Amino acid sequence: MNLLELIIGQLPEAIYFSLFILLSKQIKKRRIVFIGINIIEYLLLLNLFPFSTKARIMYFVLFYLELKVLYKDQTQITDVFTLGIASILMMIVNLALYPIALCLHNYLLYAITTRIVLFLILFLIRNKLLLIQRIYFKFWNRNYKVKRIMKSTTFRSLNLVIFNFMFYIINICMIYSLVRRC
Amino acid sequence: MKKSKLQLMLTLIFNLAETTTIALLGTLLNVPFCYTALIIIVFMLTRVAFLFMFSAKIFHFKTWYRCVVWSTLIMLSLFVLLKVDLVVSIGFAIFAGYIMTTQSNLIKRKLDINTEVTITDVFSSMYLWKASNTPSKYYDIEEYIKYNEFDTKLLEFEDKLRAKSNVDYLIYKYRFLEHKTFNEMKEILGMENPRIDERLERIALAVRLYCGI
């Protein structure tokens, strides 16, 4: 277990995911408990099963269960997709800043930069994250009374397709990381 | 009835063609056919399971081309996950089946409970397309009212129904004159769907006998 990887790599990621959900759902209660449990499960999963897509999937499952236990009625199945959006944002930031790692051959600098940028983006969009919940509430359930730009069936299908492809891309990234390490 | 059988045949042909296309898509991705078939079956059976176990309503696309596009994309994403792992893909297929039913609705409320789940419901629940113009069981009454709006017998019936029971008249009005759905009637009347369905059956029988439909 690389302590530097743990502190600079995995710990900020766990905090980022927790904050993303807390801000998007505007949760005010039991935040420290939620972040604490999230950090423990994230670190455990990623260190017990390194470079494993299944560990990432298990994280999503445990994340949802944790939300369900702590925030019962406030938790919806769409929170899984909200976490997916957080993951996609992280993947975009990592990909956009990857030239730093390639050009400078300094992965420590790359890791620090990506984390700083992620938290900066989170800080800048903190008030806009509630829009995600609003969009899901608007489009998720069927509503025959209101005409919408996208039907519920289409919206759900779109979410599913993006969600599934996201895990395939995560798998490719895992394999790439493993090959690079070897 | 003939029209209904024709619609069912067309739906069957369409869905079989769609299934074949999706299975071929799996072959193109170099996925073993047995795995492709397994994922398709798991997805379909999950939807049927939710129909039976939780009386959940199944999501369908109203147009055939949307069904083709989205079914293909969903299945493609599941086949791509087969490259990760079979168990992962099966898990995601079950998740996808769950998402495409009303069981995954955001605000949990009592869902429409079908008084009867027919083989047509089972079949249509497996696929993402359901022909929207499949006639309802009150098709004859709807047609009669549509073409005999000012018929004396019909107007007499409406007056007598209104005098007998205001609730029954409202159900008749919302269903046959305003074409509201069960959910909408439930919200307006504050009655559960089985109660509305029960009264509607009685009203339908009464209008058929009175007007000679």
Task: Give keywords.
heterodimer; A: 182 residues; mainly alpha; 8 helices; globular; B: 213 residues; 10 helices; elongated
Write the layout of secondary structure elements.
The complex is a heterodimer of chains A (182) and B (213).
Chain A: H1 3-25, H2 31-48, H3 53-71, H4 78-96, H5 98-104, H6 107-124, H7 130-139, H8 152-181
Chain B: H1 2-28, H2 33-54, H3 64-81, H4 86-99, H5 119-126, H6 139-147, H7 152-164, H8 166-177, H9 182-189, H10 193-211
Description:
The complex is a heterodimer of chains A (182) and B (213). Chain A has 182 residues and is an all-alpha fold. Helix content of chain A is 79%, strand content 0%. Chain A has helices at residues 3-25, 31-48, 53-71, 78-96, 98-104, 107-124, 130-139, 152-181. In chain A, helix 1 (3-25) packs across helix 2 (31-48) and helix 2 (31-48) packs antiparallel against helix 3. Chain A is globular. The model of chain A has no long low-confidence stretch (mean pLDDT 89). Chain B has 213 residues and is an all-alpha fold. Helices cover 70% and strands 0% of the residues of chain B. Chain B has 10 helices and no strands. The longest helix of chain B is centred in the N-terminal third of the chain and has 27 residues, at 2-28. Chain B starts with a helix and ends with a helix. Mean pLDDT of chain B is 80; it is low at 108-117. The chains are: A mainly alpha (182), B mainly alpha (213). At the A-B interface, helix 3 and helix 8 of A face helix 3 and helix 4 of B.
Summarize the structure.
Chain A has 182 residues and is an all-alpha fold. Chain A contains 8 helices and no strands.
Q: What does the overall shape of chain A look like? A: globular
Number of H- or I-type helical stretches of chain A: 8
Rg of chain A over CA atoms, rounded to whole Å, is 17 Å
Distance between the termini of chain B: 15 Å
* Content-based structural category of chain A: mainly alpha
Q: Which residue ranges of chain A are poorly predicted, with pLDDT under 50 across at least 5 consecutive positions?
A: none
Which structural category do the helix and sheet elements of chain B fall into?
mainly alpha
Shape of chain B: elongated
Number of strands of chain A: 0
Largest interface: A-B, 26 and 31 residues
Helix-strand string of chain B: HHHHHHHHHH
Helix percent band of chain B: over 70%
Count up the helices of chain B.
10
- As a percent range, the share of strand residues of chain B is under 5%
Task: Give unreliable regions of chain B as ranges.
Answer: 108-117
